[in-house]
Amino acid sequence: MRMGVDYGGTKIEGILLDDTGKERARARVPTPRGDYQGGLDAIRGLMLGLEKEAGGKVTRVGIGVPGSVDRETGRVSMGNSTWLDGMDLRGDLAAALDRPVKVANDANCFALSEAVDGAGAGAQVVFGVILGSGVGGGIVVHGRLVEGVNAIGGEWGHIPLPTPLDDERPGPVCSCGVPGHVEAWLSGPSFARDYARRSGLPETGGPTAPEIIARAGAGEAAALETLQRYEDRLGRGLGTIVNVLDPDVIVLGGGMSNVKRLYDTVPPLIGRHVFGGRFNTRLVPNVHGDSSGVRGAAWL
Does the bond joining 170 to the residue before it have cis omega, within 30 degrees of 0? Predict the structure, then answer.
């Protein structure tokens, strides 16, 4: 059996899959925040408990983490779980679990999950998109992750918003400190801040993204205009991805992926920015929901 682990900032979730992808066991525990050794111990405890529940032995382990993972050393950087930064997570877990371990960015795990047996199953090239508290992405080609020599394959959240309008320059400051990046426009919190700015409200403490979506559905003009701006920006951002990668399918995940109208409104907006005038890439919601990350880790 293979074990997948989603190492999040608030919880660590583990899952066991057999070789057909069938779930055999699942459990989660709170993340020991700031405690690196505590995290290793928690994952070992999860593995032992899951093995007991499933009545079999784990032969391989995959871990999904926020941040970049050096493919040579397995060390983590640029994540919001700062106690992992610079640590040899892959090596230390392999020693603690006495099992082979692979570690990957959590957005890569999402993309892999959806490419193997999710919304992108059977496609040659899948681009997985996270539109949540941040904006991430992952590339899967012929069932294999493309992480890149710099371990940043798919990180489209940190490219400038394409063809910015006059009132989009220089743009809000991204989480990485650079203004105008895609993440600064397309994350859930960025969507909410855009609404607040246009409505004359403070950028913090106002309506959340789901509340604004509900207001748009009820016909509020300011909310609907904010959603339309979001759709236009998403179209521009993904148009650039299609011009570079030309994927068979783009799978959306994260909280903003639950906005159903995106799958009707955004494809024509992407097509406007695709070279050659033909746009056949499918834009689809994910199949596995919150389980995609942990399932993708198991498939590593």
Answer: yes
* Overall fold of domain 121-286: Nucleotidyltransferase; domain 5 (3.30.420)
The structure's pTM equals: 0.94
Burial of 254 from C-beta contacts in 10 A (0-12 / 13-18 / 19+): buried
Q: Among 64-68, 89-93, 131-135, 219-223, which stretch is predicted with the lowest mean pLDDT?
A: 64-68
Cα gap 101→219, rounded to integer Å: 50
Per CATH, 2-99 and 121-286 having the same topology is answered: yes
Q: Could you give the percent of the chain with pLDDT greater than 70?
A: 100
The pLDDT value recorded for residue 67 is 84
Predicted confidence (pLDDT) at residue 70 exceeds the cutoff of 90:
no
Top CATH class, 2-99: alpha beta
Q: Where are the domains of the chain?
A: 2-99, 121-286
**In this structure, what token pair is assigned to residue 289?**
């929901």
Q: Are 184 and 172 in contact (CB under 8 A)?
A: yes
Three-state SS letters, 107-165 = HHHHHHHHHHHCCCCCCCEEEEEEECCCEEEEEEECCEECCCCCCCCCCHHHCECCCCC
Q: For the chain, first and last CA: distance in Å?
A: 13
Q: Whole-number mean pLDDT of the chain?
A: 95
- Per-residue pLDDT reduced to its tens digit, 101-117: 999 999 999 999 999 99
Strand order in the sheet with 282-285: 144-145, 135-141, 125-131, 249-253, 282-285
